[in-house]
Design a protein that fits this description.
The chain is an alpha/beta fold. 41% of the residues lie in helices and 15% in strands.
């Protein structure tokens, strides 16, 4: 590419911030209540977040990690992995928390936001780097859909507000449509670790049965629960 040297590419690759919205652990994952008690669900939420932070901390293409939360335990955990803890928009749901982080990154002159949830414990550093490497020159959007193609489990937005993001139980296809409405052809990556979020008992069973069995804190926890 004319006019682009190694230093330019290096800067391009290292101005992406991971942005992880985290709700309070208490009351988390209520849809798994048929299998887990309230205290087990809180521990599960914390343990899954740690697995996500392990992957993000091991990725080579990130400039840093933002965790948006008001939960003190989540903030302490994030700090152990070098994440910057913020709270702008944390009380406004998943979308509000992501938009709060996007506003901060834009104001600070960062190129792109990669948002992921805290409940994808099979994510790997290699998958994170694959999403970062998907960036094109110019405004762009990369999406890693959930395994059921309903949720948007990872979204790389370049710049942070290239496309208005709105998360929910059915956000994947709406994100594709809004990107195209803004003149952006989205990149879709299907990555098994990012794709498996834990919301329902069936997701827990799929996580335990997944091959290869990637050793994670979450897997050890669920085995300890007798699942």
């Amino acid at each position: 590419m004319t006019g682009v040297g190694p230093d330019d590419w290096g800067r391009r690759m290292t101005r992406v911030w991971a942005a992880v919205p985290v709700k309070p652990f208490a009351g988390a994952k209520q849809r798994t209540a048929s299998l887990l008690s309230a205290s087990q669900r809180a521990v599960l939420a914390a343990t899954m977040l740690e697995d996500v932070l392990v992957a993000l901390a091991g990725a080579t293409g990130l400039a840093g990690i933002l965790v948006n939360t008001i939960d003190p335990a989540a903030a302490r955990l994030a700090g152990r992995y070098g994440a910057r803890v913020v709270s702008e928009g944390a009380l406004d749901g998943h979308t509000g928390a992501v938009n709060g982080m996007a506003r901060m990154l834009r104001a600070e002159g960062n190129d792109a936001l990669l948002t992921l949830p805290g409940d994808i414990p099979r994510v790997t550093a290699a998958e994170v780097d694959a999403v970062v490497a998907s960036r094109a020159w110019g405004p762009g959007l990369t999406i890693v859909p959930a395994h059921d193609e309903l949720g948007s489990n990872a979204v790389l937005c370049d710049p942070p507000f290239a496309v208005p993001l709105r998360f929910g139980d059915d956000s994947y296809f709406p994100h594709l449509m809004v990107a195209r409405a803004h003149g952006i052809e989205p990149v879709v990556l299907r990555l098994p670790g990012i794709g498996l979020d834990i919301d329902h008992p069936a997701d827990l069973r799929a996580f335990i049965a997944a091959r290869p069995r990637k050793p994670t804190w979450t897997l050890a926890l669920l085995e300890g629960f007798g699942l």
